[in-house]
Amino acid sequence: MILDRPLWDSTYHFKISCVHQNISIDCGKYEIETSSLRSRSTEIVFDKPTSLQAIIHENGTLFIDWNTSLNGWRSSTKVIKLLNQNSEKLLDAITEDSTVYFHDISIGDYYVSFEPGGSNIPKNTELLTVHLIIVSNELNEIYAFLGSTDLTLKIIWSGSLHASWSMCKGRGVSSKKASIIDVDEYRIFLLNGSSSVIYSEGRLSPHKDNASFIFPGMSLNVEYIVKIQCMFRNKVFSCGEDRIFTNTSHYSTLYKNKTEIYVPTGFPSIWSHLNDHCLMSRGHLVSLDRSGLDGSLWDLSSFQDFWTGGNICRNSPAPSYSMWSDGSLNARINFAPDSELDGSHCCVKSSRNEQNQSLWKGESCDTILYGICEYVFAEIMDDLSDLRGESGSSNSISLSWNTQGLFWQPTSYSIQACLNRTLYSSTIIAGSSENCSRILINSTQTSVSVNDLDEFSEYDLKITASLNPYFLVNKTLYVKSRTQSSKSVEFTISSNGIFQTTWLRKVALFKEEESIRLNVSSDGFNSYQYLNGTASGTELSSLKLGESYTYYLEDELGGRLGPLEFEAYPNCTNGIRNYTFCMFILDKNLSYGDRNEECRSLGFNSDSILSESQLIHFHLWDIVHESLLFWIQSNGSSLDSKNRTLCRAWSRSLKLYTFTECNEKLPVLCFGDIQIDITTPTRKDLKIASGPTHITIDWSTPRNGWYVNYTVSYMDEMIFHNRSKRTTQIESQIRVHGPPINITGLLPRRSYSVTVMTALNNNTVRSLTVEGLSTTSDRRMSREIAILTNPKRDVLYAQISLISICALLTFIAIILLAWSRTLSLYPENLVQLCFQISTLCFYISFMLFTKDGPLAMDSE
Fold first, then answer.
1. Where are the domains of the chain?
2. In this predicted structure, what is the pLDDT of residue 727?
3. pLDDT, tens only, 365-394
4. Phi first, then psi: what are they for 362, rounded to 5°?
5. Collapsing DSSP states into helix, strand and coil, what is residue 379?
6. Does domain 489-568 fall into CATH 2.60.40.10?
7. Which CA distances in Å does 357 have to 251, 301, 336, 348, 529?
8. Burial of 143 (C-beta count, 10 Å sphere; 0-12/13-18/19+)
9. Where is the chain membrane-spanning (predicted)?
């Protein structure tokens, strides 16, 4: 049994009667006093005045009346004080009723405070203090506005706060006529309960008897304050304030892809009041329609009995097919054998029996009990949006995001950053020891810096928002981001001589496809070359090995980067370039015998001996290692005076080679020649054409690559006219930049040996010798026109072809002669035609087949 609104400082006597078969027996008595001298004001809640109204008469008499709330202790009297703006008491009154009045009140600003009266009231117990303003309008009518609107806050368990209040109205009586006027506007503010930071605010115009406002996107386990300001003419005054804590005392579960939340009411009342309370928060009294739900709710609360949504009364809000107010199906029945369910006990409560079992019983709907509200939502946590990852520095990414502000704000975020790829192409940057890093944020902040990342790398970022541990809800969002580079630009030079530059700052911002112009010049060119490309790669397709170049980069908006310089040498796959070598220091110490095998496994295959000057000017000694002695790849060994084998090592302090024991473990400097790829012609690539005094050699060359030179030397092999076996060793040379190569000033009918040497920076890379290239006769057609690879066979074919042509022409002439009359031709003209054809055939044969003719048969 719960006694509603007991009177403070009173004595209550309880008597229990047991009835059996209409026989009543006294089962017990109990007496209790409802006050304590040790009570503190913060622990005792008295009933507060509600529905406050003030009315001012033209004679200055102020009437104030009110109702009492349904919750809290009743006091025997109420003490009402009228205060000025400095909270100093002007008037006071004590009343046992719900009305009080003050005389001689003028226009101005006041405060009215309400305190419980009677004996044994804890000190400093204040029920309510409200703002009172007395104003007049243009007609000199006076009104009293009392700043109490019965502001009520309710949690909507999908993540919103519902504020509702009664309209603040000014009331006055003049010339025995009562008048009521509304305020002009309401301003409502949502503040943090601990820091008073304003989260949100809104404005409303009065249009109904009750006003409401919803603040979406709330956070769990936070205290909020809602304040209302009323505006009338140029007056602004407080007309309501309340606070609420978004407590986490609830039970939740996922069922059919929806979140079900069960929250105790926090105060007892009759069935209809509690059901209305739940409905105001968009829920209803709990429906126990699933097995096991009873036990979970008993664990949530300490109630001996609590109201459920079951109602089988005549005026039940439940539909006809269900006993539950929300219309849930009657899927299970858990009534006690002595349920006492009847017409006067038609509301259903859940009770515990002596065996601590949960059973349903009927109860009078006017009985005061606690209740449990049930809320069902498809969405309960805000979605993440606008996830952005920006390059904070070379080792960090700034991650920020937003929420929609509609549902509960996430209580924690888990952020995972996984390395996707390293964006550098010319150098190797060591990766982190772990591919993924994780950050956990236990707050509602919406930005974070992810640190300790690899330089100039792309990361896959995943952020998971959750409401743990309050609700088992998670949502995930993905984004890619990149760290910055400590350099502005990077370039690579391939082994085949193609230069490519990358604007790193733009690539880090995902602007790799932005159009870029490359302006480049070199020592060999006074003017600039202008090349178009993108931020991810702009190419210069041909380079001269070892030459110095200067270049600029420009974007479409006029941004300029430069001047930048480079020397035309290929990049090293591993290590750092030093002169024409790639050098690399191993990260482990080895003996002399193991050094070569380890270096060669990494691709360093040079057998050269590095000079002391090359080692002295290796500019990364102090950065890469602290050791003073190094094994050098491919160095030799010797015997000392004691016949011990010593191996040569490089002393960084002495800057010269020295000898030490071969089994000593030292760092190893590996090196290899820079790889340079150029295309040189082969015999099958050549296209050769010859004339009486020249030989032309041509082949295809790539458009891109290193600039190369060709040196062509040729030598006369034999004298065709004399058919002599002796060879004339006369050699000549010419230098050209590329094909075709035209060798002139040769003698007819001679055989030559030609050598083509490909040179890179005046160093011969490869040579090709072709023998048996012959010039033609001075009166013979060039082999470029008549290509005869087998003279005897081809001449025979040519002779047969020409004789066939002459025979065909003669046959046509004879046919024309035979058919001359049919064709109406004159005989003398036909005879002349046949004579001309015969003469022509004879002349052609004579010119071609005589000794000096081009088709004359050569005995050789």
1. 51-65+99-104+122-246, 251-377, 384-481, 489-568, 576-634+644-672, 686-722+730-775
2. 45
3. 999 999 999 999 989 899 888 899 888 888
4. -80, 150
5. coil
6. yes
7. 19, 14, 10, 16, 91
8. buried
9. 796-818, 830-849
Q: What is the reported pTM?
A: 0.64
Instruction: Please tell me the CATH superfamily of domain 576-634+644-672, with its number.
Output: Mannose-Binding Protein A, subunit A (3.10.100.10)
User: What percentage of the chain has pLDDT greater than the value 90?
Assistant: 20
The CATH number, out of the four listed (3.10.180.10, 3.90.950.10, 3.10.100.10, 2.140.10.10), of the domain defined by the range 251-377: 3.10.100.10
- SS3 for 100-148, per residue? EEECCCCCEEEEEEEEEECCCCCCCCCCEEEEEEEEECCCCCEEEEECC
Amino acid letter, residue 559:
G
Segment 301-316 mean pLDDT: 88
Burial class of residue 61 (count of CB atoms within 10 Å of its CB; 0-12, 13-18, 19+): middle
Q: Which residues contact 852 (CB under 8 A, 6 or more apart)?
A: 779
Q: Which amino acid is at 821?
A: R
pLDDT at 793 over 70: no
The two structure tokens encoding residue 481:
């981001």
Strands (E), 435-580: 436-441, 447-450, 457-467, 471-482, 489-493, 499-503, 515-522, 525-534, 538-540, 542-543, 548-555, 560-567, 576-578
Distance CA 157, CA 220 (A): 10
pLDDT of 789 reads 37
Sequence-separated (6 or more) residues with CB below 8 Å from residue 313: 343, 346, 347, 365
Write the class of the CATH domain 384-481. mainly beta
Instruction: Return the ∠ at Cα 15 (arms to 13 and 21), rounded to 5°.
Output: 165
- Judge whether residue 43 has pLDDT over 90: no
Please determine, looking at this structure, whether the domain spanning 51-65+99-104+122-246 carries the CATH number 2.60.40.1970: no
Q: Where are the alpha helices (DSSP H) in 152-197?
A: none
Phi-psi region of 67 (alpha: psi -120 to 50; beta: other; left: phi over 0): beta
3-state class (DSSP) for residue 250: coil
Q: Which two tokens stand for residue 562?
A: 């430069």
Q: Which of 88, 256, 244, 237 is nearest to 151 (CA)?
A: 244
Q: How far apart are CA 96 and CA 80, in angstroms?
A: 11
For residue 817, what pLDDT band results from cuts at 50, 70 and 90?
low
With beta carbons less than 8 A apart as the criterion, state whether 568 and 495 touch: no
Which are the contacts of 814, defined by CB distance < 8 A and separation ≥ 6?
A: 834
pLDDT of residue 212: 87
Contact 616, 655 (CB under 8 A): yes
Instruction: Give the per-residue pLDDT at 720.
Output: 36
Count the alpha carbons within 13 Å of 455 in the hemisphere toward its beta carbon.
Answer: 13
Q: Could you identify the residue written with the tokens 């020891």?
A: 433
> Residues 6 or more apart from 20 whose CB is under 8 A from it?
none
- 40 against 664, higher pLDDT: 664
* Helices marked H in 557-661: 592-601, 612-616, 621-624
Token duo for residue 25: 């027996």
What residue type is assigned to position 835 of the chain? F
CA 155 to chain centre: 34
Neighbouring residues of 293: CB distance < 8 A, sequence distance ≥ 6: 286
* Number of residues in the chain: 860
